[in-house]
Amino acid sequence: MDSRPRLYLCTAFLCGVLLTLGFKDFYPDLERRFRRRRVPINSIAGAGLTSKDQIDLEDHTKNLKGADIHDVELGEGIEACVGNTPLFKIKSLSEETGCDILGKAEFLNGAGGSPKDRVALNLIKTAEEQGLLTPHSGDTIYEGTVGSTGISLATICRARGYLAHICMPSDQATEKSDLLLKLGAVVDRVPPAPIIDPMHFVNRARNLAAGHTADPTRPGRGYFANQFENEANWQAHFEGTGPEIYQQCGGKLDAFVAGAGTGGTIAGVARFLKPKLPNLRIVLADPQGSGLFNRIKNGVMFDTLEREGTRRRSQVDTIVEGIGLNRVTANFEAGRELIDDAIKVNDEEAMTMARWLAEKDGIFIGSSSAVNCVAAARLARLMGPGYRIVTILCDSGTRHLSRFWAYAGDIGGKTDSKLIDTLGD
Length: 425
Hints:
The protein is of the alpha/beta class.
């Protein structure tokens, strides 16, 4: 029997198998080619348009024409990171009160992370201009501070060729003195005392600076920065913080709320804004234990039977740091007549507000910022909806972990706080 038909059949079968396998691999590419040939030749790939459709193109390079990119001015040193901080709406407080409550994010100053960066830089620059400080000469800057000014001074001192010697009360958060040491400052933690005591932290700094200058065996001079009385303090805010707020608000704001530690911030901002906005309300936020509330409300710092500056007992205990005074300072007095009202805030209200902002907005602030926000929210309720209120967010809560936030506690999974609980009314 002839075997050729069988051979033909086997060969055809094998060819069919091979052809099938080859076509399976080749088919996807063939399908893509076929579909591509079916696209109209007048279409625009990827756009779903044809040549008949009108396309408007924008030239995003027109603003660059004629610009010399080699002439960009760069900031020099960490000092260039001071100022021009953002101003933003605090969403939860604004929604609850019906007012736009705006926070000036001073904790984003790039040297020491607080508004004291502005003060420290201006204090040093002013002293240099007056011939009181010479860089890299061994000059040392002495200051009495509860922490933030010291941190800013320590940072900028190193940047400009000076040493820093900081005196601070021993009851302040330890992370502040720890940071000062890491920044290369000498730190004296002294027991809290009234201002008439020679060992008050401000008086000690003044005396140490004088002793340094008088000692012929020590290099350089001692310079007492004197943030409470040195008017370069409020001038820093008159020249920086105030104009920034005015520009960022487009000249439209109804109230400014701030606490006072030295008085420089509220005085400098008020002196800049009030002449431009005569109807603007300047409101002091004052913590418990401070006498400034009575200074604004009643014209006296303490009880009417006490003469200012002579009270020997210590300030009433408070866990709020950075603001509150029981004496008159040159910086506060520079703007006192421009302050329209004062709001007293206790520790519990400050802690509750700090927890509220962390819970509702993810904003983690320190004690003085919390006092400012309580006062701003309370003012918003008093004024009614529709107003714009600006306040200061001074520093991060990371500087207040061992004291203020230790009392305030953790947020946990809490999401149901009420503003009426926060304001205590």
